[in-house]
Amino acid sequence: MEYDLLLKGPWLVIHHGGDSNNTGAIALLGGVFDPVHQGHVDIALSALHHPQISAVHWIPCARIPHHKSAPIAPAQARLEMVHIACSGTDGFVIDDIEYHREGPSYTADTVKSIATQSQGETLLWIVGADNARNLAKWKSAEELWNIAIPLVAPRPGVKPNSRGAPAPAESSYLHREDFPYIDDSRWQLFCQWQLPPVSAQISSSQIRESLRNSKDFDKLSAEGLGIPSAVLDFIVAGGWYQS
């Protein structure tokens, strides 16, 4: 498997084809990816298909903040799984910035570092609808909003907030009054950027449980688990999630 390697700043960015001179908006997809699954891929593809988005940057989380559960697979294995899942898709970029920084991986710190290296592109960061509801409580939320625009990814089973029907140019997952520090023009930009829902109902925890409970790995189906087949091959070969 060959990758086009490009050193950019202090970290490594890996391009899978595509035009590096494209100046459209860049969507940032961070996550633990423990393991990466088809739901992640579908969300990234839905963003990439947006006519104003030129690339989706995958940003695997190296070190989870201490208040969250630690990943099962080590950081390097999770990074490799993302490489495998993204291979061959023009416009997917893997950024291992969080692997070159000490301490826990916070979204605001990562996005700020990426912004210092950008060429003036609009930065969007993809956030699942389930996590979007807590956005006002995120670390350095105000700073994050001023650097990148949230791009909410609807998730099956996650209903919009129930404070009433959204007003025109409003988001059904976030409410304006929760973000008093955001100016109106920034909020309008946020409301213009929306992702369509994806049909897959997949979670990494469900995949880990299925792998842990499997009696015969030769009979495992990548499609049934909801992960790319090459990722399943890597998991089985490495023995991840199997005990």
Characterise this structure.
This protein is α/β, with parallel strands linked by helices. It has nine helices and seven strands, in the order E-E-E-H-E-H-E-H-E-H-H-E-H-H-H-H. It has a seven-stranded mixed beta sheet, with helices on both faces. Helix 1 links the parallel strand 3 and strand 4. The radius of gyration is 18 Å and the shape is globular. The protein starts with a strand and ends in a 5-residue tail after the last helix.
Q: What's the β-strand tally?
A: 7
Annotation field: number of helices? 9
CATH topology tier name: Rossmann fold
Task: Provide the spatial order of strands within the biggest beta sheet.
Answer: 1-2-5-4-3-6-7
- The gyration radius over C-alpha positions equals 18 Å
CATH architecture: 3-Layer(aba) Sandwich
- What is the percent of helical residues? 25-40%
How are the elements arranged and paired?
Elements: E1 4-8, E2 11-15, E3 25-31, H1 38-48, E4 53-60, H2 75-86, E5 92-95, H3 107-117, E6 123-128, H4 129-132, H5 141-147, E7 149-153, H6 184-192, H7 204-213, H8 222-225, H9 229-238
Parallel strand pairs: 3-4, 3-6, 4-5, 6-7
Antiparallel strand pairs: 1-2, 2-5
Helix pairs in contact: 2-9, 3-5
